[in-house]
Amino acid sequence: MLVAALTGNYGMGKSTVLKMFRDLGAITLDADKVVDALLEDAAVLRKVRESFGNAVFSKGGGIDRAALAAIIFRDKEERDALEGILHPLVFERIEAFLEKTGERKADGKVVIVEIPLLFEKGYTRRFYRKITVYTDEEIALKRLGKKGIAREMAMSRLEAQIPIKDKIRMADFSIDNSGTQGETERQVREIYGKLLADSKGMREQGLTAGLNKDE
To answer: Which CATH architecture has domain 2-204?
Structure first.
């Protein structure tokens, strides 16, 4: 089983590409969805309330995502505080997911985990391969605008991330998501073929490339 990380910057198409890998047969996990689940966990909500107060909670008692985002993308210390609460738990759930996947005889399979802050938080050595999805920043901003996300908010998130050109340089593979869906799918198929060949080769040698828990 080969575990690869998929990353990129805000609005550049990570989730779209993750689905393409899944459609080809990869086992996939979206860390953002893990975070969504954690933000409904009572113990996590208590920690968030202790760190950020009642201002980031709605009247119904859940997280007010807009209020929380406004705080963490304005202040790096606040962002680090939230990540300190969430990230260890995210990796606990990723490890549990991979353990269950391994129990289902996943030798020779490829697992793709979408990790938005792969490079920012120094998680690269946890994964056997790293894949960066990218577009021109203006393309990302236009796509986000069509989804109703204000340019100012989008820019604040992009500015909180490592420049995409550096993520391309640090990745094993990169996928240009600036063009048509077909053009992106072609790149995904090519990379998936290489990952699948690596995974099958490791199976033949009795090796595995799962998540490195020591990092």
So the answer is: 3-Layer(aba) Sandwich (3.40)
